[in-house]
Amino acid sequence: MKKEKIQPHCVVCLIPFKRTDQVHTDTFGTQIQHAKCFMFKPEFIKDTGTYEEVVNKYPNYKKSFIVSDNPVTDLSLVAAHKLRK
User: Fold this and answer.
1) Model-level pTM greater than 0.85?
2) Which of 19, 33, 35, 63 has the most CB atoms at less than 10 Å from its CB?
3) From CA 22, how far away is CA 51, in angstroms rounded?
4) Is there a contact between 48 and 23 (Cβ–Cβ < 8 Å)?
5) DSSP annotation of 82
């Protein structure tokens, strides 16, 4: 069975990434967050760049994440976020 790729979102603002969004990854969870949303101290930035650059740099991201300006909407994810509000 082939693993389906996903369109990830920022864990802070919950907005799906577009290919040109500026992002940071952190040193402990290796989460991707928008640069403007980054919630840790600057010394915890592992990497920075556009979403597309960061995904293509790390093989684990590249095989799992979609790089697109037209994000795929996962209805179960949308429903889960509506419950949080």
Assistant:
1) no
2) 33
3) 6
4) yes
5) H
Percent above pLDDT 90 for the chain: 28
Order of strands, sheet of 32-34, starting from the edge strand that comes earlier in the sequence: 32-34, 22-26, 45-50
Tell the burial category of 7 from Cβ atoms under 10 Å away from its Cβ (0-12, 13-18, 19+): middle
| Extended strands (E) in the chain | 22-26, 32-34, 45-50
Strand partners, 48: 24
Residue (of 12, 25, 13) closest to 65 by Cα position: 25
Rounded to whole angstroms, the Cα distance separating 81 from 75 reads 10
Residues 6+ apart with CB under 8 A from 78: none
